[in-house]
Amino acid sequence: MGRLSAKFDYEEIRNARILENRARLASLGLHKTLSDLRSVTSPAKSVKSSVRKPSRIDYSGTPLRRSSRLMKVSTTESPSGHDPLRRSNRLRGVSRSRDLISLPQGKEDVSEKNVEEEKRPANMPLVEVKASQAQLSPEIMIRRCDSKSRGSVYSPIFGICCHFCRQKKLCGEEGCKRCGNLDMNEPCIGKTDCSVCHSSNGVLCRACLKVRYGEEMEEVRANKNWMCPHCIEEKGIKLNWICNSSLCLKKRSMVPTGIAIFRAREMGYESVAHLLMDELQQKMKRSHC
């Protein structure tokens, strides 16, 4: 009971003080002043600004902006009035004629020649370079023959990419006029060329040719009818003789072999291709059983 009475006494005293303070403010005229200050300090209601939509500009009357490369291609128009599609010579039925860059030894200027359509060997591709790029430093040319297997000098312009190791290097053959003299009209004797397809699938360096297929570069150069593994498989000359590059094995949903030459030689095989050929033949026998 004592606690309840004390609470009621406190509330009565508090209410009395509130009434006393209100009466004092009214007598001083401060109540109205406080209400005026509150109305001034209160934020005004923001007026919604109308959103202005951007106007569309008609560009149909203005000419198209085209790069200088596209402007130099052709100014002829199709019957419909639109620019013709950019299509290859093969799709347009135009015979292939290319500008060749001949870099013979002893000449500094680069000459352009138009030749008739022909199937060039894959180890003699066309290269278009400037006269300033047609030279290599003497240090590089000396270092070129340090490694005869795959070559020691990487060259993104003059090097020919091997289908297996994909190294775009100058070959290490001493008598190669292409890599030694930068004569682009001569074949690279350190890279193979398939006599059937003449494609990049048949370009192999000396090391990959020996390790992956057990063949020597001198024998391949002497054999004018040499065929790459793709053409051998297509013609059915050797059963299960396939290209064992990582790209071709992945297309077959096969796991790339990696460095398998040591395992192949320990098992008595001449190369990785002979190992894979035997494994595929055994797999076919087990599937027929």
Q: Any low-confidence stretches, pLDDT <50, length ≥5?
A: 74-84, 95-117
Strand fraction: 5-15%
Total helices: the number is 12
- End-to-end span in angstroms? 104 Å
Largest sheet: 3 strands, antiparallel
Order of helices and strands: HHHHEEHEEEHHHHHHH
Instruction: Label the structural class.
Output: mainly alpha
Helical content, roughly?
25-40%
Radius of gyration: 42 Å
Strands in their spatial order, largest beta sheet: 3-5-4
If you average the pLDDT, what whole number results?
A: 77
- The number of strands is 5
Characterize the overall form. elongated
Report on the architecture of this protein.
The chain has 289 residues and is mainly alpha-helical. The protein is 38% helix and 5% strand. It is built from twelve helices and five strands. It has helices spanning 2-28, 30-41, 68-73, 89-92, 138-143, 177-181, 206-213, 217-222, 229-235, 246-251, 261-266, 272-288; strands spanning 99-102, 111-114, 153-154, 160-161, 168-170. The strands form two sheets. Strands 3-5-4 form a three-stranded antiparallel β-sheet. A two-stranded antiparallel sheet has the order 1-2. A hairpin with an 8-residue loop joins strand 1 and strand 2 (111-114). The radius of gyration is 42 Å and the shape is elongated. The N and C termini lie far apart (104 Å). Mean pLDDT is 77; it is low at 74-84 and 95-117.
